[in-house]
Amino acid sequence: MKKRAFSGVQPSGVLHLGNYFGAIKRFTDFQDDYDCFFCIVDLHSITVYQDPEELPKLINDTALYYLAAGLDPQKATLFVQSDVPCHAELSWMLECVSTFGELSRMTQFKDKSKGKESFSSGLFTYPVLMAADILLYDTDVVPVGEDQKQHVELCRDLAQRFNSRYGETFKVPEAVIPEFGARIKSLQNPDKKMSKSDPNPLGYISLSDSKDDIVNKIRRAVTDSGREIVYSPEDKPAIANLMTIYSLCTGLEFSEIEEQFEGKGYAAFKQALADAIIETLAPVQEKYREYAESGIISSILKQGAEKANEVSSQVLKRAKQRMGLSLLLDPTKRKLS
Ligand code: AQP
């Protein structure tokens, strides 16, 4: 039997190059060898305010970009988190197994709540919902970017704690983080990761950016002192980030990039980088348009939700039994409308 892979992306904005190289493009590498469940985690996205008029479009767009990046719905299950009620139910059960102290140590929570007078409790418990997402599918591997490593560690801890307290229930999953491209940085601040909720759109290249947007954003990307194109993340973090993007787009090694731009300066490098990004995104944007026009996405998501409900409800039932909760409403018998 194939091992199982699970991962998700928030519909909190238009996906960017970091989401593409760190997540959705890599997902397609798993679909031949793993039984894959890929999710649009809309319940996670509402931990910060989302416009209810916009959210359905963002959910749809995220699904379309999964397909445009090469996800094959015949091979992998694609679904929307809020269509599968087991996620929210197991999340509550796991919240009762997690501690306030361990959630307070999550760096994403610290970053996102920093300097804010008020934030939702959901932002704090976000990693528990993520643990529920993963554990509901008896997941073996979780392909994610570097930023999610700590959350997958927490998921492992919660699974182990639940198993030792209530008896063997959950498979303990492992994160799979790419050696390269796992953390693309903001174009405006190489100390921060590229993020779709960045209030400054110059910080990210979104998958829907036009050629002009891409040229403009790369031209205005921050650089380091000097003019040499050399890979040195300590001394030249901004150039190292741009070189990482160039390498991901072209497949060239850093030494080859250094050779290609020796003595040519930042302007020539930026021009070549913008061209490489445009070339990389052109087929993705083309496929996005084709899938959007085909109108096929709703039936893919419906089939995906049916399969996800079938699998996750078995695991939820097992967990409820172990905890001694009521099963008058059997989760495996509920049906989608
Ligand atoms: N900058 C990044 N470089 C590499 N991988 C990244 N990922 C996110 N940013 C980068 C990976 O993309 C997947 C989906 O992420 P997400 O949408 O669930 O949430 P996120 O990690 O919080 O991404 P964003 O773009 O920063 O969203 P917002 O701004 O809404 O918080 C994950 O596998 C993630 O590792």
Structure notes:
This protein folds into two domains: 4-177 and 296-333, Rossmann fold, CATH 3.40.50; 201-292, Tyrosyl-Transfer RNA Synthetase (Orthogonal Bundle). The strands form two sheets. Strands 1-2-3 form a three-stranded parallel sheet. It has a two-stranded parallel ribbon with strand order 4-5. Strand 4 (141-143), helix 8 and strand 5 (174-176) form a beta-alpha-beta unit. The mean pLDDT is 96. It contains 13 helices and five strands. With 337 residues, the chain is mainly α. The structure holds adenosine-5'-tetraphosphate.
In short:
The protein folds into two domains: 4-177 and 296-333, HUPs (Rossmann fold, 3-Layer(aba) Sandwich), CATH 3.40.50.620; 201-292, Tyrosyl-Transfer RNA Synthetase (Orthogonal Bundle), CATH 1.10.240. Helix content is 52%, strand content 7%. It has 13 helices and five strands.
